[in-house]
Structure formats: C-alpha cells, structure tokens
C-alpha cells in the first residue's frame, strides 16, 4: 500500500506514489491540516530540528521513529538541545507530521 486518501489528491498525483523523496519534508498546508496546527508552527519545528538534532549523533530522520516514539524521546532530546517548552512542542509536532508524510500521509491524530 502506498499513497493515502486526501482531498489534496491532485498534489499526491503529482508527487507520485513512493516518490515523496525528501526525508525531511517541507512543512505543507496538508501537514498543518492533518495535525490541526498552523503551518508556521511546523516550519519552526523543522528549523529547530535542522539546527539542533545532529550535534551529538547522526541526525535521526523523522521516518525512523514512529509518532509515539517521538513523543517519548523528544522531551529528553529537547533538554539535550536546550530547547524551551514551546520549541520542544514545535519539534515534536513537526517530527510526527513528517513521519506521516514520508510514510504516505497516513498521519496519526
Ligand atoms: C547534547 C547532545 C544531544 C542533542 C543536542 C540531541 N541528542 Fe539525541 N541523543 C543523545 C544521546 C547521548 C543519545 C543516546 C541515549 C540517550 O541519552 O537517551 C541520544 C539518542 C537519540 C535518539 C534515540 C536513538 C535510538 O536509536 O535509540 C533519538 C531518536 C534522538 N536522540 C533524536 C534527537 C533529536 C530529534 C534531537 C533534536 C531535538 C536530538 N536528538 C538532540 C544526545 C543528543
């Protein structure tokens, strides 16, 4: 199975099936809608992730950890990266959304 149902079918068609190749996908309106957050929050989370999460170890990609895993890991890693509480939330939301996007837009709620 690949793809996923979305009102943004046209976008998915263009993206193709299995061709969502960016492992650290840009924050999109679709992601924001799925997560019920502002796109700007996802963008902040992505920037935070890009800037802070590769200093002590190889970057762990969003796809590598499932949303529940991120939920339990991020508080600890945010402390490592010295993120404040709202930055921590932004990173977590982004990673969960990006995980879903990379795996075919079957985002969890
Ligand atoms: C100050 C160093 C440091 C920073 C910054 C840091 N980490 Fe880590 N990370 C570690 C260490 C050390 C471990 C190994 C064990 C532990 O402490 O849980 C780890 C483990 C992990 C793991 C578990 C890997 C596995 O295979 O079990 C993930 C996922 C992870 N980090 C993601 C992140 C993310 C995402 C960020 C950015 C918010 C981040 N880390 C920032 C030090 C850091």
Describe what you observe in this structure.
The protein has helices at 9-15, 29-35, 39-52, 67-80, 85-102. By secondary structure, it is mainly alpha-helical. It has one domain. 29% of the residues are buried. It binds heme C.
Brief rundown of the structure:
With 109 residues, the protein is mainly α. It has helices spanning 9-15, 29-35, 39-52, 67-80, 85-102.
In terms of topology, how is this protein built?
Blueprint: H1 9-15, H2 29-35, H3 39-52, H4 67-80, H5 85-102
The chain binds heme C (HEC).
Q: Helix/strand-derived class?
A: mainly alpha
Distance between the termini: 20 Å
Strand content: under 5%
Shape: globular
Using only C-alpha atoms, the radius of gyration works out to: 14 Å
**How would you spell out the order of helices and strands?**
HHHHH
Mean pLDDT: 85
Tags for this entry?
109 residues, mainly alpha, globular, disordered N terminus
């Amino acid at each position: 199975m690949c793809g996923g149902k979305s009102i943004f079918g046209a976008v998915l068609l263009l993206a193709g099936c299995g061709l969502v190749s960016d492992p650290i996908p840009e924050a999109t309106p679709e992601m924001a809608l799925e997560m019920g957050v502002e796109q700007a929050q996802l963008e902040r989370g992505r920037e935070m992730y890009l800037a802070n999460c590769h200093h002590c170890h190889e970057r762990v990609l969003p796809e590598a950890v499932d949303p529940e895993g991120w939920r339990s890991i991020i508080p600890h890693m945010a402390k490592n990266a010295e993120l404040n509480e709202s930055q921590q939330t932004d990173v977590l939301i982004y990673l969960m959304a990006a995980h879903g996007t990379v795996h075919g837009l079957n985002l969890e709620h």
